[in-house]
Write a structure and sequence with these properties.
The chain is built from 5 helices and 5 strands. It is of the alpha/beta class and about 120 residues long. The protein has one domain: Response regulator (Rossmann fold, 3-Layer(aba) Sandwich), CATH 3.40.50. The protein has a 5-stranded parallel beta sheet with strand order 2-1-3-4-5, with helices on both faces. Helix 1 links the parallel strand 1 and strand 2. It is globular.
Length: about 120
């Protein structure tokens, strides 16, 4: 399985990578939504972790584009924006889960497992 980590923070990309490296065969990274769409077109990841606040293209817009290109991809939003309206917007665009920053490795693993369970049940 392939994972794409989309976040403008190198620290967060590294934290997600280290927490999930053993779970996925291939882990790719993008620092904004524009890069993420390029990677999605080339690689078709199974799962994406998506920040919402990024330069060039925000996470909600990126989710909308990902769903056009690769609708079978499952998306876990990982964001410091924890208000309900933001979460609902991301989920209504196609995201499958939401994890608030800061997060523990255990919370990250649990959230990814829930997204994968959704994927496997389809």
């Amino acid at each position: 399985m392939k994972l794409l980590i989309v976040d403008d923070s190198l620290v967060i990309r590294n934290k997600i990578n280290s927490g999930l490296l053993k779970r996925f065969d291939k882990v790719l990274r993008a620092k904004n939504g524009v890069e993420a769409i390029e990677v999605v077109k080339l690689v078709r990841p199974d799962v994406i972790t998506m920040d919402l606040t990024m330069p060039e293209m925000d996470g909600v817009e990126c989710i909308q584009e990902v769903m056009k290109v690769c609708p079978s991809t499952h998306i876990l939003v990982i964001s410091a924006l924890a208000d309900k309206a933001t979460a609902i917007a991301a989920l209504s665009c196609g995201a499958n889960g939401f994890l608030c920053k800061p997060f523990t490795q255990s919370q990250l693993t649990d959230a990814i497992e829930k997204v994968l369970a959704i994927q496997l049940s389809r």
